[in-house]
Amino acid sequence: MFSNRLFNILVPIISVLLGLVSGAIIMLIFGYNPIAGFSALWNGAFGDAYFFGETIRQVTPYILSGLAVAFALRSGLLNIGVEGQVFMGWLASVWIGISFDLPMILHLPLAILAAAIAGAFWGFIPGLLKAKLGVHEVIVTIMMNYIALYLSNSIVRNLLSDGADRTENVAETASLQSTWLAEMTFYSRIHYGFIVALLMALVMWFIINRTTTGFELRSVGFNQHASKYAGMNVSKNIILAMVISGAFAGLAGAMEGLGTFGFMSIKSGFTNIGFDGIAVALLGANTAFGVILAAFLFGILKIGALNMPTAAGVPTELVEIIIALIIFFVASSYMIRWVILRFKKEGK
Amino acid sequence: MDYVIEMLKIRKEFPGIVANDNINLQVKKGEIHALLGENGAGKSTLMNVLFGLYQPERGEIRVRGEKVNITDPNVANAQGIGMVHQHFMLVDTFTVTENIVLGSEPKKAGTVNLKHAEEQVRELSERYGLNVDPKAKIRDISVGMQQRVEILKTLYRGAEILIFDEPTAVLTPQEIKELIDIMQSLVKEGKSIILITHKLKEIMEVCDRCTVIRKGQGIGTVDVSKTNPTELASLMVGRDVSFSTEKTKADPKEAYLSIRDLRVKDVRGVEMVKGLNLEVRAGEIVGIAGVDGNGQSELIEAITGLRRTESGNIRLHDKEITNMTPRKVTQSGVSHIPQDRHKFGLVLDFPIGENMVLQSYHQKPYSKKGVMNFKNIYQKAKDLIAEYDVRTPDAYTPARALSGGNQQKAIIGREVDRSPDLIIAAQPTRGLDVGAIEFIHKKLIEERDKGRAVLLLSFELDEIMNLSDRIAVMFDGQIIADVQPEKTNEQELGLLMAGNSTEKAGGQ
Question: Does residue B391 fall inside a structural domain?
């Protein structure tokens, strides 16, 4: 008999494999060579140090946005607003990054902290509305995404620049970029942020699994009535869950603002870091370690895909289809479970 | 012998547990056959095997003498086996007929043709005295009627053998009587019935024979006419069971809980507790008798801090606890066994071990400076599981996987272990079998003898009469009578519960 644990590991792996196989079939149908396509994908992600550096760069915000979604889900809340919280974090980190002149030991932590607080605040509002008035968090967070997008555009144009499309670069004392890492990876945009991301995964694991706060959050997530009966403050826990989730999301924004780009520009639409975070959390079964693995997979697919048109002539869009298929198969994990059980029964 | 159903030497395993082992069940044509066992004994598993939801590891099933392989519920249906589920499977917004034909809708030129089906439903309903209106919407009819729709569903599909899964659990006494009549008329028409239950009274009343299961083992089959409730109970539990719990006379001391002029509104803003006065002393069990909906739930929620009071005060040992948070009330020495154990008592997705510290997780030794100590938590959980005989594979099993009786034992273990001054037990034995009921009653009396105050809320008069040292009758948000169980009877209590004052009731 499969243990539950093994099952939980097996299902995402099979989902990924099925996604890849379906991707190969689609490539075949459209007349591309799947072997050439996938090896181009692989080389695009790991082919040399530059590609590897870019992959890590992409994985970093995915880990954080995945943690944000996973943390809220463990507390029974669906935070669709990670995207907006990323914007607020990005904005806050750049704002601090360009406005102060401080030694690095103060400036960098301050900029990162500001991002976390800004994201947390953007999570606090829907949390408060849910806790006090019972407004569903999905509706509020979707709306908050648009507010964040246009608010940050407006602030970048009118407050942080003189009508320009982007801010100036953040001071070096607030930057996560590293010449050493860049040189090692043929000038990829890899930065120190991945250390922050891994650290935060540890933080999430610790809060959820080891603290009384995590116990309360999970309890409220499963059963509000029993939690209230047991003396927990349900409203406080709902707000807290959204605040911590928002803080993770804000940090994902800081990775872009202080690391990858070093500035913030006007955006015509969403970055998708937050929305992809939903898929990352889902694929990672809402656990910290699972999120790291899932973020790697998504990063590899995203970066590796850039190499597919040039090296194998496969359009990038196809990779989007493969990612979509993987998510589809994870979401239908019930189906995979059922098939596995079926096979087992016949094997007996 | 003319058996319509034979299940021989059935064995069904689940990971880590043998749910059914060596069980034989032989049902004769035209009889009502009871399947008796404690919660978690394996009755439902056995019926799910018969209904094709589970495949047995060993054993064979014969229908009308022929060996059959029931691989899924469709096969069972084709064999004429129908199941009336405990939790109804009905679409609220559909009519009775629509629900009955669901899945095998009669079609005419691509559209559903209900006319003919309606006639059939009406005819079936009349033949068995079910009195169901085929055109009524499910949401507009009572629970008892809904159950009849479930019965009609199986009959419409041509069932000859009907399985009733604890059918009386959701019914009022009047509805139970009517259901019994229906079962008897079904049998008269040549149907056979398997009745899953743990209520001995019902078995004695309607069943012809009874098969007993204990801890997954088939114990045997007895003729109901040649047995009695005491024998059945001891067969089911495996030892002698006493129905009325032994207890010494109460020795009440000073008042622990005193409630003055309490007023509480419900969710809709309607006043449900209207100036209530109540006192519970140390070392006594006070039972609140009353018809559901007279403010009992609101009273208990107000005491435990789950609902705000409008006015009045609640004192615990001279300490005011009115409108305190649930945690403060708990820490003042109140334990609460909630009415709805799934909604309030447990986080079903948590391991049973972690449910044991649901209120005390933030205290030492279960956590220190906000960090949980799972080693201590599970150590405590294992002790409580052993002490309160909670049957579970281990402490890490989700609470959801336990049977109702074992979930309740876990809650009682948790609540009593905190050594509270006051225990509030709201319907502590609802839906449990005699073994578990006996255990819980014993525990409550033990706590009383240790000098604790016990406030018992129950809608079962037997339980109130049996356990209470004093009965407070609640009607329309007030305590309207305070009677001694020795000096009253069910009739008088019934009158009081309907709102007649003591003098009137006594005068009759």
Answer: no
